[in-house]
Amino acid sequence: MTSQTENAAFSRDEMIMCSKCGKSNPPNRAGCLYCGAPLDVPEDLRGSVKLNLRKLENWENGFNVVIVGRADTADLASAAQYLKLDNELFGRMVEAKGPFPLARLELERDAAAAAERLSAFGFTTKLVRDVDLKIGKPNTRLRSVEFSGDRVVFTSFNTSEQRSLSSGEVALIVIGTIVESRKESVEKGRKDKRKVLAESATTSDDLVIDIYPGDSSRGWRVTTKGFDFSTLGSEKRLLAAQNIQLLLEKLKAFAPAAKTVDEYARLMALLTEVWDIERGIDFQGLRRTGMLRSGFASVARTSNLEQFSKYSRLQQKLL
Predict the structure, then answer these.
(1) Residues contacting 148, CB < 8 A, separation 6+
(2) pLDDT tens sequence across 269-312
(3) Eight-class DSSP state of 54
(4) Where are the alpha helices (DSSP H) in the chain?
(5) How far apart are CA 301 and CA 250, in angstroms?
(6) How far apart are CA 298 and CA 283, in angstroms?
(7) Measured at the alpha carbon of residue 26, what is the angle toward residues 24 and 32, in degrees to the nearest 5?
(8) What whole-number distance in Å separates Cα of residue 228 and Cα of residue 243?
(9) What is the pLDDT of the chain when averaged over all its residues?
(10) 142: exposed, middle or buried (C-beta count within 10 Å: 0-12, 13-18, 19+)?
(11) Which of 192, 209, 233, 276 is the most buried (most CB within 10 A)?
């Protein structure tokens, strides 16, 4: 049996030499198979270059290909095949009313190539870097919102710093739900044979409102925890969940020209195809659960906080 080291679909003349390591590569690759260096692919072959669709970890910095529009004649099936997505799933992604990430790629050149190919299929896209979406400086958490005529005053939760805006200065309102879960367990035994001694689980979901002015990428965030709803006056209810809905209606009435994005809850599951939610396990050592019973405790956590924050910032960036 003879060994084969090159792709039989391409002749020796078609292979591309890597300028870094000197090895031959098929012309349908953007990076070298051996060292990962960028390849100088001829312009007439760039449309056939395969994307490196490795799913990035949340901590990695990548480049997002974001859909912002499409032609009536857009070729959904070909675009879905190119991105290796199910046709139905891709169709739901492109139906999003605002900017939506279709792919998250490791290298900028790959993202640019993907945008160019999707353009040929009839889609308008933008490239957005993860570093522009990650919340190094999160939206300012608010303690209170006060309405006074044609002005609104935001008071920071941590510093009590105030900012006054007119109704026309409020450009965007993004609504979402933060879902967090914790599962605590105490187990004993070996890896292949464990016994659960104790287990408990909690889940919370809270409505959040992000508010952005027209002159800054950093906005403000209203959550139910620690917020003073006295601005609602006689309309104030007993439950915080009811009060934040009432506050949202007041904000929308105050700034009718502001764009309101209320699709996150519907799109959250779709977003996990590109931006996964945060998951983690904290090991807490040996814990006693009863008379002569002890085991190793752990807490499994999930949260979509960062996913929503990136989605919210994306809506502002491409407003």
Answers:
(1) none
(2) 999 999 999 999 988 888 887 777 888 888 999 999 999 999 99
(3) P
(4) 76-82, 87-94, 108-120, 240-254, 264-271, 305-317
(5) 34
(6) 4
(7) 60
(8) 10
(9) 89
(10) buried
(11) 209
- The predicted-structure confidence for 182-212, as pLDDT tens digits, reads as follows 999 888 876 677 888 888 999 999 999 999 9
Nearest to 275 by CA among 158, 134, 138: 134
- Output the pLDDT for position 6: 45
Query: Residue 162 pLDDT more than 90?
Result: yes
Render the burial of 183-199: b for 16+ CB within 10 Å, e for the rest: ebbbeeeeeeeeeebee
DSSP label at residue 103: E
Q: Return the pLDDT at 43.
A: 65
Token reading at 57 = 């970890």
3-state secondary structure of 180: strand
pLDDT at 1 over 70: no
How many residues belong to the chain?
319
Token pair of 259, please?
């764009």
CATH numbers and ranges of domains, the chain: 1-42 (2.30.30), 51-132 (3.30.1390), 140-317 (no CATH)
Distance CA(153)–CA(175), nearest Å, equals 19
* CA separation for the pair 11, 6 (Å, rounded): 9
Closest CA to 142 of 218, 238, 252, 214: 218
